[in-house]
Give the backbone structure.
Amino acid sequence: MKDPTTKPGHLARRFQQIAVAVFHAEVEDAGYDLTPVQYAALAAVGTHPGMDQATLAGAIAYDRTTITGVVDRLVQKGLVVRKQNSRDRRAHALEMTEAGRKSLRGIEPSVEAAQRAMLCGLTAAEAKELMRLMRKAIDAANELSRAPLREAPVAMAKKA
Amino acid sequence: MKDPTTKPGHLARRFQQIAVAVFHAEVEDAGYDLTPVQYAALAAVGTHPGMDQATLAGAIAYDRTTITGVVDRLVQKGLVVRKQNSRDRRAHALEMTEAGRKSLRGIEPSVEAAQRAMLCGLTAAEAKELMRLMRKAIDAANELSRAPLREAPVAMAKKA
DNA sequence: CGATATTGAATAGTATGCTGATCATCAGTA
DNA sequence: TACTGATGATCAGCATACTATTCAATATCG
C-alpha cells in the first residue's frame, strides 16, 4: 500500500496548513490581527467597493455562509461597514473604513513575506512552475467545490 | 496590484477546498460517511496498530487537539477502540475494529478516485511534477506549522 | 397582475483546525 | 526518593468551512 502522505489530498491539506501557519506568524509579527480569509475579504472590498456579500464570496471563492461570519468580524474590528444598497434592499453594500484602508496597506508586506516563506524550499523557477500547475488543476476543477471562483462584475461601483 | 487569486496562499486554500469537496463527493457516492481526516486516521491506525493519539497526530501531521475529536467520532462510529496501554497509563492504544477494517477496505476505491479527480485538469506528467514540487515545498517548511509530520516509530506494536 | 422561481443574507448544526491552558503520568536526575 | 521537566490527553474558546434551511426581496414569466 502506498504511503498516504504522498497522495494529492494529503499534500493539498498540508500545504494549506503550512500556508496558514506562515501567514499567521508573519502577520502577528507585524502587529496585525487578521486571518487569511479576513485579509482576502478586506482586499477584495478594497478593489470592488460597494460589492455585496455574495459577490465577495464568489470573488475570493469562499462559501457565502462563511463570508457572513467573516464580514461580521471585519465589521466588529471596524475595518468594514455594511451599508444599505439602494437598488436591492436584500443586499449589503460593503465599504472599507479609513481604519480598513490603513490596515490593508500596513499588512501587505507581511502578506508578501508569507507568500515567499511558504515556498522557501523551492527555486524561483520551481515556485513559478508549482503555481502554474496548481492554477491549471484548480481551474479545471473550479466547479467541483460548492464555492467556485466567480469573476466580480467589472463595474461593481455603478450598481451600488 | 497583483491579483490576489494568483498568490500561493490563495491557490493552496483553493486546491485543498477542491480536494475536500471531491473526497466527500466520491466517498458519499460509495455509501460511506467518513471525512478526509477520519479516513487518514483510520488508515494510519490500520498501518500502526496500538499507536497512541500523539503518535497518530504526528504520523498524519494533524494537531493533537484535533485528533482527540476525530478519534472520538471514529470510536462513536464503532470503527476504532481506545484500549489501555499497559506501559503508559496516560496513553490510549488505538485499535481498529472489524467494522473499521471493513470500512477501510471498502472506501479505498473512492479515495483513489478522488485523488484522480482533483488532478483531472493535468496530464500524468504534470500531475507527477505537481506532487514533486508540493512535497519539496512541504518538506522544507515542515517545522513551520504546529503539527509537523513525524515518522511513527517502526515497531509501534512492540510498545503497546 | 399574480404565481413562481431565484437570489442575498442569516441561522442552526456539525466537523475541522488552531492557541493556550490544565491535569495526570512518566522519566531523569540530584 | 523528592524534584523537575517532558509528555499524553483533554478542554475552553475562537475562526473557518460545510450542509441544509429559512426569510425577505427581487425577477421572471404566463
